[in-house]
Amino acid sequence: MSKLDMLWVSDLRNPGFSFPEHANMTNIENLILRNCNIIGPVPEYIANWIWLEYLDLSFNNLTGRIPNLKNVSEVLLTGNMLDGPIPPLIDNDMDLSYNNILLPKDAKEGKPHGSGPKPHGPEPNTKPNRNYILEARDKYCQGKSKYYSLFINCGGGQTSFEGNQYDEDINETKFYESPGGKWAYSCSGDFLSASADSSDYLKNMTCGVSEQSLHETARLCPTSLTYYGFCLHKGNYTVKLHFAEIVYTKDEDYSSSGKRIFDVYIQGEKKLENFNIKDEAGWPNKLHTREFVTHVDENPLVIHFFWAGKGSIYNTPQLNGPLVSAISVTPSKKYGTYLNLFLADISPSSSSGEIISLLLSVIKCYFQTSQFQKAINYLLQK
To answer: Which residues does the UniProt record annotate as the domain Malectin (predicted)?
Structure first.
C-alpha cells in the first residue's frame, strides 16, 4: 500500500469498521472512502501524508474532532457525527455540513473562524448541521402547518407550468433557504472536473429540449443534493420529479456517451436505485418524470438525490452527480385528500378561528388546482 497514490471506494454495505491504528500510505494523493459505514475518529496520521491533496470521507459514521489537515487541498467530511471546533488556520476547501461542528461566536456572525487572521482559502462549509430539520421546522413553522403543495423549478427562474406557479431556484451556493422558509436545498461534494465551479450547479439548455420550458434548466450537484419542504399539512402527497439529461448530450465532445447514475430517497426511503435519466427517457434532452406517494407528518418533506460513485467519470465534462429539473408536491388525491388534510390538522383544542382559517386554505388550494381551472374554463366557454 505504500506505493498507492489513488484509492476510491464508495457505497459499501457492512456492519461498520474503523480506521486501523497505523496505515502506510505515505504516497497517497487522492483518497475517497464515501458511504462506507466507517466508525470512530479520523486518525491523526492522515495529517502526515504529505502528498495527500483530496480527501473524501463523507457519509460515514465518524465521530470525534477533526485533525489538523492543513496540507490537504480539499477535505469532504459531510454527513458524519464529528464535533468540536474547526482546527485553526485551515487553508483548504472543506465541507463539514451535516455534522455537529462547534462554531465560535465570530463564525456564527459570518466572520472567519479561528483565533487569528484567516488565510486566503475559502471558509469551511458547515451548513446545514445535523439538527437542521428540527431547527428549521421550529423557526419557520412554529408548530403550525401552512402549505398544501410545493413547486420548484430547479436551476431556473419562476415560471408557470400546467397551471401551477413554480418557485425560482437559481442560487449558486451549497446551501439555500427560500424567502419565507417554504423550502431549502443543500448540496455537498466536489466535481471531478478541475475546471468546474459553483456556476456548474445550474444548467440551462436553451435548444434541443423536446418538452416545455420547465425542463430546459436543472440543478446539478456533485455528490448529494437534498431538498426540504417545510410546513406542509399532515397527510399523503404525490411527489413528481422532472428529469432531462441536458449535460451529457453532445457527440462532438463524446459527452453523449456519458452515464449519470444516482439514487433517489424520499422521507428516507430509497425510491430509485442506479437511476439513469437517458436510459429512462430514451434520449438526451428528453423529459422523463417519476411520481411517488409519500407521507408527511410534523417533520419536513425530505427529497434526497445521491451519487454513489457509479456511471461515467472520465467522459468530459466530468460533471458527475445527481441532476433534477423540477419538483412538484401535491396532495395524493386531488379532491378527497384536501378534506383529509384539513381534518388531520384539526385537534380538539383548535379554536373556531383556526378551523375557519384552515378551511379557507383548503378551499383556496382546491380552486388553484389545474384540473379545476380547466373545468371552470370549459364551462365558461359553453
So the answer is: 149-327
